[in-house]
Amino acid sequence: MADSDYGKELASLDFKNLIGGPLSAVVEAQAMAAESTVNFIKNMGFDQEGNPQYVTFKYQKSATQAEGEAKQSDQNEMMEMQVPFLTLIPIPFIRVDEATIDFNAKINAVNYSTKTSDHKFDAGSDRRKGFIGRLLGIKASYSYKSTTNSGNRVERTFTLAIRVRAVQDEMPGGMEKILGILESSIRDNMVTRQAAGVEKK
Q1: How far apart are CA 145 and CA 121, in angstroms?
Q2: Reported pTM
Q3: Please, which residues bridge with residue 188 across strands?
């Protein structure tokens, strides 16, 4: 096969699908990641009615005794804090930062030629009895055979390697504003006050 034939063979490859297929897959993967982020925010941050979901926990803190109350040695307030769940967890914003596509085509052509030879030699004697006495004859034969094989062998190797690098993207401005609003809605309320064994609500 001539070199020009190899060029035609490479030119006949469907590079549109070989290169465009992986690129389309990367774009679809980015779209799926964005959709997963939206579903994460909806399911983890809000209920079915669209209200923010809160994490509630209680803690004690020392209370400042109000003026005019009976003097007591210890006063503790039981506080209840409600924090929006989205402000406590990292929100995944996955972005494809880099995609590398390596396509290698390797065509090896090998011309070969083999030649085999076969030599064959036979010799023998022939004794015959004649009128006068014995006659001695010699027989000999020789043969030669030569075979030549030639041709070429073509080996084709195609490899496609795809490397994708994904990173955590910066938070969009709209999401930052939503989190700011949620942070301002953090509630910190007193549930009970305990003082010297007396509990007030």
Answers
A1: 12
A2: 0.60
A3: 81
